[in-house]
Fold this protein.
Amino acid sequence: MADIRSITFTVLHLIWWPINQILRVVILLLTPIWTLLTFILLPFLHLAQVFITIITFPFRGKWLDRIEVHVSFKLRVRIY
């Protein structure tokens, strides 16, 4: 008599195999489209990153000061 585990895994394998093949075909078909899309969007993404960097530039100094003060305060507390 067959073991329940072997029957279960055989059934699961038979269910998963077509799904796996469909996913592989979809990925195979979408890979060139994704590559082309990322190549086209690259300048716009870079431009958006530059704008975000320019907008957040004034806040960087404040964040660095907060981090430095926080770290130096912790160090002073540990030293003394």
